[in-house]
Design a protein that fits this description.
Largest sheet of chain B: none
Number of helices of chain A: 7
Number of strands of chain A: 0
Structural class of chain B: mainly alpha
CATH superfamily of the largest domain in chain A: RNA polymerase sigma factor, region 2, helix turn helix motif
Distance between the termini of chain A: 33 Å
Strand content of chain B: under 5%
Oligomer: heterodimer
Helix content of chain A: over 70%
Helix content of chain B: over 70%
Structural class of chain A: mainly alpha
Radius of gyration of chain A: 17 Å
Largest sheet of chain A: none
Number of strands of chain B: 0
Radius of gyration of chain B: 18 Å
Shape of chain B: flat
């Protein structure tokens, strides 16, 4: 998302938070493609549509809580990351219940590599799940390149510090 | 799913989100009514005022804009008008007969004027203009009326006059 679009989205979300319904259409037009591509990267194309839809509904349901001082794109992606995580957890549970075979992470990797990669992703996901929502939002913004600036770098540093502590607590090493 | 269908679901989610957020004002309205009842105000009248105040506050918060932003300050300012006559009552003043007119009525008018002045200051800071002042004055008036019913109809009228007089400078500036 371009810098101008991000600024425009922040303005529109601030107007929505203040109750200006005229901002709904333009905000929807900016948010939907952003959330769909984000969900596609996070959960894969098969589940992207469902994840993006629930993320979009959650973003609009919480639109009146939006703080105009924050970056709307990072805020929306934080909510979307949470929705994607919830959806993945649901699907994972369903697969476990049905006893489905392990899903390959990469078609080019060997089964062992795919399994190791999947385990690593799962471990990272579970560790991130123990962090506070603000840290999840920060790390999401970091991976998507959705924010920058000195304040954001400080937030990233703090979030990564807390991630390391949580990782050590769960796995005993970096 | 069609984009228009998704947009209408998102719109519904937005309105529901606003509604549930607006409902957070309810404990403050209920608290104001309970304080008034605890200080001896008639239950039926206080409930009637609370029943008028709650939907007004929720509706304005849901609508948003400057009128929505005025709800919190209006309730805060209303507490001044609510507290004045109730303080007299708890201090042992029996509001009955001519002594009521000499003490309760000025207390209601003073509480109203304080509310009005507070609304004026906050409206100027917010820049919300006439709709902000009118919404805040309505909310403050209904909150204050729960306490100023102590002075009867004149108490409520005195408080309302105080609110209008206190916020008049901002009202006049906004009209220009």
């Amino acid at each position: 998302m371009e810098r101008l679009e991000r600024a425009e989205l922040s303005r529109l979300m601030a107007r929505l938070a203040d109750g200006d319904r005229a901002a709904f259409g333009p905000a929807f037009a900016l948010l939907w493609p952003m959330l769909r591509s984000f969900a596609e990267r996070l959960v894969g194309s098969a589940d992207a549509e469902d994840a993006a839809q629930s993320a979009l509904l959650a973003v609009f349901a919480r639109a009146s809580e939006f703080d105009a001082a924050r970056d709307a794109a990072a805020w929306a992606l934080g909510i979307a990351a949470w929705e994607c995580k919830t959806l993945r957890r649901k699907r994972q549970r369903r697969r476990e219940e049905q006893g489905a075979p392990l899903e390959m992470v990469s078609s080019q990797a060997s089964p062992e590599e795919a399994l190791a990669e999947r385990d690593l992703h799962e471990a990272i996901r579970l560790t991130i799940g123990t962090l506070r929502p603000i840290d999840v939002e920060t790390l999401t913004a970091l991976t998507t390149g959705a924010a920058s600036g000195a304040t954001f770098r400080k937030r990233v540093s703090r979030a990564l510090g807390r991630f390391r502590i949580a990782w050590r607590a769960r796995h005993g090493s970096d | 799913m069609e984009a228009t269908d998704l947009a209408s679901r998102a719109r519904r989610a937005y309105e529901l989100g606003r509604f549930s957020r607006a409902l957070r004002v309810a404990p403050f309205v209920v608290a104001a009514a309970l304080v008034a009842i605890a200080c001896g105000r008639p239950v039926a009248m206080t409930c009637a005022l609370g029943c008028a105040l709650l939907p007004l506050a929720v509706g304005l918060l849901m609508r948003g804009g400057s009128a929505g932003r005025a709800v919190g300050p209006g309730l805060g300012a209303g507490w001044a008008a609510l507290a004045m006559p109730l303080l007299l009552r708890t201090a042992g003043h029996a509001c009955f007969g001519p002594s009521c007119m000499s003490l309760c009525l000025p207390a209601c008018a003073l509480g109203g004027a304080l509310s009005g002045a507070l609304i004026g200051v906050l409206a100027r800071r917010d820049g919300g203009g006439l709709s902000y002042v009118v919404a805040a004055a309505a909310i403050a008036g209904l909150s204050g009326a729960m306490g100023c019913s102590l002075g009867g109809a004149f108490g409520i009228l005195g408080m309302a006059a105080g609110v209008v007089a206190g916020s008049a400078p901002v009202l006049l500036t906004a009209r220009r």
